[in-house]
Amino acid sequence: MNYQRRFSVAASTIVAALLLLQCGCSVVGLGIGEAIDSHKPDSVTVQGYRLATIEQGSHLNITLSNGSTITGTFNRGLPATAERIDTLYMRARSNDSGCAILPALGDTVEFIKKSGRVRSRIDNAVYRRLESDCDFCFGATPVDSSGARELCLKHLLAIRRPDGGLLKSGDIANAIAQSNTFVPLAGIEMVTKTGLQQTSLDSISQVVMSYHKHGQRNGFLIGAAIDVVIFIVWMS
Predict the structure, then answer these.
(1) 174-183, 198-207, 214-223 — which is least confidently predicted?
(2) Which residues, other chains included, contact 117 with Cβ-Cβ below 8 Å and sequence gap of 6+?
(3) Which of 3, 60, 133, 180 has the most Cβ atoms closer than 10 angstroms to its Cβ?
């Protein structure tokens, strides 16, 4: 009887050790994921040009100028008029130190592309929101032609300014992305509990975006997958 009890305890200990070995990676993965999540903020204030890069479905909490709030998920940005975009572009050159490097509307510059170079007068600023991305372009008229065209940063290598300075397309993109003034939107459309709601950008005081933390879940799933592999190898 005493022998059977000792055998049962020993068997239980072995089973517990094997289970711990099997699920060890899951536990470790869960711990690593929790540590990663702990270093991520729960939310972040979105301002300036970054408002134009919010992804559809992002959870937002908007504070209006009158103090009221709107909570929901981002559906889309309401496009600004061409005149407003031009105004904001020129205002950004004056207000944002990082945008002082940008050429002014009306400047004659040299656009440098892989396929060659073209001297053109900048007519206007253009913002394009693509399905999964966005791009900034210059509406320009070549000096040797009367046909206007759009020259987008994605297809440009650099721009040579009237003073001879060379601006790489990446420098232009970074200046615009960090601007607090250039926001090529007229408003924000959100999905709320009461349905679609459109809010003018001029009436918004603050936009806070919540982060979804997936570190624990992802860490656990990766660890569990490793545990399954270990278990299969051990059983074989």
Answers:
(1) 214-223
(2) 110, 111
(3) 60
- Phi and psi at 154, nearest 5°, equal -60, -25
Tokens 């200046």 found at:
175
CA distance 138 to 106: 11
The pair of structure tokens assigned to 149 is 């065209």
Q: For residue 202, give the DSSP letter.
A: G
pTM of the complete model: 0.67
Domains of the chain from N-terminus onward? 2-40+213-235 (no CATH), 43-80+183-211 (2.30.30.100), 81-178 (2.30.30)
Nearest to 47 by CA among 211, 209, 212, 210: 209
- What is the pLDDT confidence band of residue 63, given thresholds at 50, 70 and 90? very high
78 and 186 in contact (C-beta within 8 Å)? yes
* Distance (Å, whole) CA 81 – CA 66: 25
- What is the b/e burial string over 35-66, where b = at least 16 CB atoms within 10 angstroms of the residue's CB? eebeeeeeeeebebbbbbebeeebebebeeee
Distance of alpha carbon 56 from alpha carbon 132, whole angstroms: 10
CA angle 189, 197, 43 (to 5 degrees): 60
